[in-house]
Amino acid sequence: MEQTTITLPSPSIGTTRFLPFIRFGKPGTGPKAYIQASLHADELPGMLVAHHLREQLAHIEQQGLLLGEVILVPAANPIGLAQTLLGSSQGRFDLRTGQNFNRLFHNLSEMVFSRVKSQLCADPLINQTRIRAAIRQCLAEQTVHDELSAQRLALMRLAADADVVIDLHCDCESVLHIYTGTPLWERAAPLAGLLDAKVALLETNSGDDPFDEACSRIWWDLAKLVDNQFPIPLACLAVTVELRGFSDVNHVMAEEDATAILDFLRLQGIIAGPLSRAVPLPCDPTPLAGCIPLTAPTSGLVVYLRELGETVKAGEPLIDLIDPVSGQVRQLLAPVDGIYFARENRRYVPPGTRLSKVAGKEALRYGSLLSA
Fold this sequence. Notes:
By secondary structure, the protein is α+β, with helices and mostly antiparallel strands. The chain folds into two domains: 2-283, 3-Layer(aba) Sandwich (Aminopeptidase), CATH 3.40.630.10; 290-359, CATH 2.40.50.100. It has eight helices and 20 strands. The radius of gyration is 21 Å and the shape is globular. InterPro entries: AstE_AspA_cat, N-alpha-Ac-DABA_deacetylase. Keywords: Hydrolase, Metal-binding, Zinc. GO terms for molecular function: hydrolase activity, acting on ester bonds; metal ion binding. Its cofactor is Zn(2+). This is Succinylglutamate desuccinylase/aspartoacylase family protein.
């Protein structure tokens, strides 16, 4: 186990922040996994899972069971961790730029294609090696000066050549669910089963370049760019895991989630040894474009009428939105048939607040599919 820190550019005279990460195993000795937590710095369940992963990975390494390399970033956003306004953590958006910390990562597809198109051949493993070398080279040549851009670049340099990328997040209140690329579902399904994910949302381009897609979509983008003239493997399995809600920070769940992730790394040939249990069947996946938000038309007091994880039908009441002064009650209805899987944790909201999400089977939305 080796802990290293990356120094970020100073945002102001007299101030410097550092991005720490831990490496288990040695580079180049086998497949590589990258796991990060709390890119949205106020989403803390992943930070506790990373704590348990650190302990278990250290033991696995000592036993000689690590077959490759694992990079663990327990707190992936030191900028956001330092942002507090009137006592409340502000870890989702950069207060200097207003940008979401999990958006605008490097889309390298065209840049890498221009470097490798003359080097591709009929051997997918050779193509994979050459593409990964081009990814590393493109990122090495990037120059940035501000702190946020440097943080994004540092995370990409650590992760972009990995075989497996797991980005640990949480929602406001939710059941455990995952996001991954549509072409990756068959490989990601065992992780969904091991984590007991209730919803799996699939897309090839969700918009705004979140971290997981920046790592994985380059491979299917390149396959499209070469028009299937050369075999391009899906060499990076990237998954965003939403570890329930903000307040779901406890050792029992975190240890179970860490064990599930380690079992998945065993399936991927990164860790040796038997699984802790048989792999459960996964949930049925649904398109991210079928995830329909329910938005508050006015301000009001929020009363939820259904429990998370329930199957709902379009038109069924989900929320009472109450004006406590006039006594008016607006009943908000399920927008589609599907799984009611996430909701806002505030109980008094302004107009336009996304209150709930229902994962439906039919792709109904287009454009940028992620919330702000």
